[in-house]
Amino acid sequence: MRIIKEDVLIDNIKKIQKTNDIILVVKDNAYGFGICYMIHLAKQLNVNKFAVKSISEGIFVKSIYKDSSVLVLGKIKKEDIEDVKKYDLIPTINDYDDYILFKEQKLSSHLAIDTGMNRFGMKSGFLAIINDSIVKAVYTHLYDSETKNKIQFIEQLSKNYLKPFHIGGSVAYGKTKGTIRVGRMVYENALYFYGQIVNIKEIDKKETVGYDGLYQATGKKRIGVCNVGYADGLSLFYHGRVRIQDRFYSCVGKCCMDQCFILIDDQVDLWDEVEFFGKEINEDEFIKNNQMSKYEMFLRINRQNTGLYP
Length: 310
Description:
This protein is α/β, with parallel strands linked by helices. It contains 10 helices and 17 strands. The two termini are 12 Å apart.
């Protein structure tokens, strides 16, 4: 079970708004938090600029919030141009071919500058088109901790050519007064993750637990079977700690698709709640023990756990 802490989401957005205008990144169903939910929440907080990865996501945002500004970060096919016009989406110029296509169609666009990630955006040739009237803004994405020169470059480019700019990546926060595209910083610490003890097994010395028998008891042990597995967001070999009734216990063995195994004592009962991260265990500890990034954690947990408990 996941619990979305709406108060944390609101606090995170308000914190950024104190110093920066926001383009809220809601790609991949708002990192799994729910694109519809996040758009309505953002609207309450006067956030009306969004970034998505595809035309279909952009259309969905517009269906919820007609007066919003929606930037499509990814490449756009020629056959999708009519939808771009119909729904008043903002396409990204990622290369010279994009520029030619959008110029022919008279589409107001944002120009992406590749500052080293080699994912999207132009690495050269952008000075030849930046003055064009279809270019309404320039932007880049920060992909590592070396941000100072990249930010200064975009800010100077914006100043020289009198074009608004925005910078993607939560690491930009606190390093520019300009508009920032944020995802992770908005969503972090707003998710709690829980399971439940659904069975208890008493095992003897040398008995094993789970697939491949990777855990072998050194004596009489008590094992709690929890209804969270790798389909729900755990790594196959998650051995981090969990909290049950204000006591901490360790996961052992190899996770199943829908269950994991916890070494417990006689204080734990059937149907007890199991905290993987939440009130006492923070998400950074979980991420470290689970050997995944925060983005992976959001998407994997949210993909399977569709209940919403603000």
